[in-house]
Each structure stands twice: as structure tokens, then as C-alpha cells.
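C-alpha cells in:
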């Protein structure tokens, strides 16, 4: 039986270098999401974590190999559950039941959360950009400057981080932008480009060379 791997993902403040993530993506059997969420509710519904938590996320547009992913995020120096952890027998039963609803495990990765702006749990729709940054320091400086210029009108969340293990097709970094839904994402991006034309020009000029790998959207189905 394949082991379930978690994805440590993002949470709130602007400087977030102490947090990390792992992810495990999979292709669920058709119509299996409700059954999967029932299983994760039973296993994690009352869990208490030392830091961070767990997301169950459904892929929406652009990810051709996966339908869902499981995300675990938090401080790696203060990791895991603070309540009584389920024993190995319960874990084995949980993963066995979960695998009954999964066609195949597709991709896993882990890394760090470097910058984060915003704090709004209502914004459960997200777009993730994965890329290779030739100059990570220059990219971070350009990214943080642009986000600070957006902050007076920022309603969702914007994060930036690195892949330390298993970046898709060699991706070294990611950026995530959250929204209420697809239409809110498109309208917000359009407005930001129109309102901050010069700021975007400086961002592209100063961030260094970037090789785009892929981008896709997802929706958070559960948070624990």
C-alpha cells in the first residue's frame, strides 16, 4: 500500500520563512470527493496541531495530472498533532480506505513559505504559478515590493515560496494568489494590472529571468 504523504502549505503573515509544506497530489476516482472528505473528517476533524494544519484541495483548471491534493503546513520545528495521535493500526485502516477512492498518486513535493500577505479564510479559490527563478533574491525583492504596493486594496492572499524537494518539472519556486472564485480571480488580476501599470513594469524588470513551468487553479474543500 502506498503511504499517504502530506503537503505543508501556507498560512498568514507576510514574512513566513519559519513555515514549510509538503504536498501529495492524486487522481481521485470519479465522484469520490464526498467519500474522501468523509474519511478525512473522521480522521482529522477533531485534530489539534502544534502549528499549521491540513488542507484538502480540489484541482480546478490547468492541472492535467491530478484532481486533488492533501496539504500539511506549519513550522517544521514545531510539527505534528498536539492531541493524542492515532495509533499505527488506525493510520493503516485510514490509508487503506482512502486508497479505495484513488486511481493513482500523481505527484509530491515539499518546500518553504518565504513571503505571505493577507489573511482571509473566505478566499478558498487559488491560482498557483510554478517556475524556475534564476535569481531568487531578486525575485523575492521584486515580489515583496509589488505586493506591498498592492496591499491597500488587497482582499485575498498572495504567497511566495520555494520547492526544496520534488518541484514539478524542475520548478524552483511558486506564487499563489487567492480569490473568492474564478470570476473574482480574473477581475481582481485585471484591475491590479490596470491600476499598477508602472509597478508591474518594475516588477518584470527587476525580478530576474523566470522560466514558467505551469499554473493552475484549485479550491479548498476542507481545512483542519
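Residues out:
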Amino acid at each position: 500500500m502506498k503511504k499517504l504523504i502530506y503537503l505543508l502549505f501556507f498560512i498568514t503573515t507576510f514574512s513566513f520563512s519559519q513555515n514549510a509544506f509538503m504536498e501529495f497530489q492524486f487522481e481521485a476516482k470519479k465522484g469520490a470527493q464526498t467519500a474522501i472528505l468523509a474519511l478525512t473528517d473522521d480522521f482529522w476533524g477533531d485534530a489539534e496541531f502544534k502549528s499549521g494544519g491540513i488542507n484538502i484541495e480540489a484541482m480546478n483548471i490547468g492541472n492535467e495530472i491530478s484532481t486533488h491534493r492533501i496539504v500539511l503546513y506549519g513550522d517544521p520545528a514545531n510539527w505534528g498533532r498536539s492531541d493524542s495521535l492515532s495509533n499505527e493500526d488506525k493510520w493503516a485502516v485510514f490509508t487503506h480506505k482512502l486508497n479505495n477512492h484513488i486511481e493513482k498518486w500523481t505527484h509530491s513535493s515539499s518546500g518553504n513559505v518565504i513571503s505571505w500577505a493577507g489573511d482571509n479564510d473566505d478566499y478558498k479559490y487559488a491560482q498557483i504559478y510554478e517556475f524556475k527563478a534564476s535569481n531568487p533574491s531578486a525575485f523575492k525583492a521584486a515580489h515583496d515590493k509589488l505586493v506591498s504596493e498592492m496591499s491597500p486594496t488587497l482582499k485575498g492572499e498572495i504567497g511566495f515560496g520555494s520547492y526544496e524537494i520534488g518541484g514539478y518539472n524542475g520548478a524552483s519556486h511558486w506564487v499563489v494568489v487567492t480569490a473568492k472564485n474564478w470570476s473574482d480571480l480574473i477581475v481582481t488580476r485585471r484591475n491590479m494590472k490596470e491600476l499598477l501599470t508602472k509597478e508591474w513594469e518594475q516588477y518584470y524588470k527587476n525580478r530576474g529571468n523566470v522560466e514558467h513551468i505551469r499554473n493552475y487553479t484549485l479550491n479548498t474543500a476542507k481545512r483542519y
